[in-house]
Specification:
Blueprint lengths: L1 H17 L6 H78 L13 H61 L1
């Protein structure tokens, strides 16, 4: 190791004799350029870090805006779907409740649309029409039966009176004999 140290110190002495010290000559120039290059690389590295940080910030902001837009659009779509489904069903339910409370089979839901809810409304209106017609027919038949019952009661009373008269006549005839 001493031998190596001696050789190294000799080499350094030779270079200093030629004018190649750590701060002068080719080594000094190289060292200065290396330091300048390192400084430039550090500046570039810092600029690159700043640019990446700005890009990350912009990406996060853009991502936040996109997420907010998606949430906003979702809320609008959900509201629209809710209104197109919930409000007609609520209207139909209200009219059905009113019909059932008042027992007025002449009322109709009258909700016209080309979807399933409109089909349901039309079917319910048709059912109400059939029920109303059936009720009118039952009332008519009931009135006819009632009229027939009154007539039968009147006839039965007449027959009963006639029967009583006949019995009384028969009784008188038996007593006269």
């Amino acid at each position: 190791m001493k031998n190596y140290e001696t050789e190294f110190l000799g080499l350094v002495a030779e270079q200093e004799a030629v004018g190649m010290s750590p701060s002068e000559g080719l080594i000094g120039d190289m060292r200065t350029k290396i330091h300048a290059t390192e400084d430039a690389l550090n500046i570039m590295q810092n600029a690159l870090r700043d640019a990446v940080a700005k890009l990350q910030t912009n990406v996060f902001i853009t991502l936040g805006i996109v997420i907010a837009a998606i949430i906003g659009i979702s809320v609008v779509l959900i509201t629209m779907v809710s209104r197109t489904i919930y409000l007609p069903i609520q209207l139909i339910t209200s009219k059905i409740r009113n019909i059932s409370q008042n027992l007025d089979l002449t009322q109709r839901v009258n909700f016209n649309s080309r979807d399933e809810i409109g089909s349901l409304s039309n079917s319910f209106d048709h059912l109400l029409g059939v029920l109303c017609d059936t009720t009118v027919a039952v009332k008519g038949t009931s009135n006819s039966v009632s009229d027939a019952s009154v007539t039968l009661t009147h006839i039965t009373n007449e027959v009963s009176k006639a029967s009583n008269l006949q019995q009384q006549r028969n009784k008188r005839l038996r007593q006269q004999k």
